[in-house]
Amino acid sequence: MTQYVASIDQGTTSTRCMIFNHAGEPVGMHQMEHEQIMPQPGWVEHDPLEIWSNTEKVIKAAIESADLTAADIVAVGITNQRETTIVWDKTTGQPLHNAVVWMDTRNAEVVADLVKDGGQDRFRPKTGLPLATYFSGLKIKWLLDHIPAVRQAADAGNAMFGNVDTWLLWNLTGGTNGGVYITDVTNASRTMLMNLDTLSWNSDIAETMGIPMSMLPEIRSSSEVYGHTLADGPFGAKIPISGILGDQHAATVGQTCFSAGEAKNTYGTGCFMILNTGTEIVQSNNGLLTTVCYKFGDQPAVYALEGSIAIAGALVQWLRDNLKLIDDAAKVEDLAKTVEDNGGIYFVPAFSGLYAPYWRDDARGAIVGMTRFVNQGHFARATLEATAFQTREVLDAMNADSGVDLTALKVDGGMVQNELLMQFQADVLNVPVIRPTVPETTSLGAAYAAGLAVGFWKNTDEMRKNWGEDKRWTPDSESSASTDLFKMWKKAVTRTFDWVE
């Protein structure tokens, strides 16, 4: 009997379930969007119950789309939007507040207070992370300080924190009736509460933030059997859940970047470049994050440098939903093709401040260089170029930190279908950009981690054999994207600084 692995991919804007065969090919999929709740500027929330409900639905629909039964599935993997923070009551299973999404900046004062005593990098030697609104621990502190129900549950020992991986695993394995309460090292490494070297919670940092250790899940590897789905759950059978990876780590695994020096860039809501640094913890001197790349079972943890960009595909959605310039995100490419260049405008999408390599919470979005010549096409082109320019800044930082110049970039995510963007990206980077045959690398990476734990894939060499090149974009030698245009972009970025006082 042919067997398969299921992957639950819970992202910032949607949840999907995909079914993969041994060749790493998708055979079934279903996806559902969820509401983006924005109570005030800088605040972004999700409803954890809506996410859980959608997860149940996409699982059933994906299995049906593949014309399979639960008996055909040997393992389940989970990958998730990282840093998004959920706190719920272990006695009722009910969320105590909406999920606070990774890009939410409501905790800026928390960050500012902590920076006063020790600077922005006070926890970086232990965690690899600068103090920024991005990370889960700082969101937990805000919830404890501002939401009475969270504080009361924490004081009573009933509060459970988790990123979305922990929330889904707990519900899939029984919830209040024996649900498994764990996270993996990749998600834990994004909380600012885990020591990179010991892969355990740092009680001193938790105490500094006022976070009880009792509300933190157990940390486990990215590939092992954590528990089983319920016979009366959405899968309809007991299946091992055996892989968990934060979404960008999952994409790195899906791109089979298993050797030090290999890198990938994922173009989604945000944009995230990860460089595998092997078993060595490399601290950044150029504004990057040091993070766990993955840890397979009892094998040593593999680390990475990461450049995180808050707004990439979200900027296209903004053109669609807020400005109504397009009615479908995919149409941004056609609109951008109506002009030859950006018309002299640069769009710096610092909606949530600037992430790597600047880490400026005081920055806000700006469009500079406006003249009466500018039209809708120029707006669309500048929107796409913003993603490519931000990626170049991250790549420059990676080259400086690693001492190794990247020779090619593997890419994935929804925006890699945009041919105009991919060519411009190659021009800006001045290196080839390569798209794999299976672009759903985030889902595939979670499937690989789950399948590896149960022997469906025996080793990483088997996974590497599945990777194939779909298309390659090479730099245009006549383009000024990597020189003059990038110089103007850097100038535009400085105009966003110090906007929030």
Describe this structure as you would to a colleague:
It is a single chain. By secondary structure, the chain is an alpha/beta fold. The chain contains 16 helices and 21 strands. The chain has helices spanning 48-65, 108-116, 124-127, 136-146, 148-155, 164-172, 185-188, 203-209, 247-254, 313-321, 332-336, 376-402, 419-429, 441-453, 460-466, 481-494, and strands at 4-10, 14-20, 26-33, 45-46, 73-80, 86-89, 99-100, 159-162, 182-184, 218-220, 223-228, 240-246, 263-267, 271-278, 289-294, 302-309, 346-348, 366-368, 409-412, 433-436, 469-473. The strands form 6 sheets. It has a 7-stranded mixed beta sheet. A 6-stranded mixed beta sheet has the order 3-2-1-5-12-11, with helices on both faces. A two-stranded antiparallel ribbon has the order 4-7. The mean pLDDT is 94.
Write the layout of secondary structure elements.
Elements: E1 4-10, E2 14-20, E3 26-33, E4 45-46, H1 48-65, E5 73-80, E6 86-89, E7 99-100, H2 108-116, H3 124-127, H4 136-146, H5 148-155, E8 159-162, H6 164-172, E9 182-184, H7 185-188, H8 203-209, E10 218-220, E11 223-228, E12 240-246, H9 247-254, E13 263-267, E14 271-278, E15 289-294, E16 302-309, H10 313-321, H11 332-336, E17 346-348, E18 366-368, H12 376-402, E19 409-412, H13 419-429, E20 433-436, H14 441-453, H15 460-466, E21 469-473, H16 481-494
Parallel strand pairs: 1-5, 5-12, 9-10, 13-19, 19-20
Antiparallel strand pairs: 1-2, 2-3, 4-7, 6-8, 11-12, 13-14, 14-16, 15-16, 17-18, 20-21
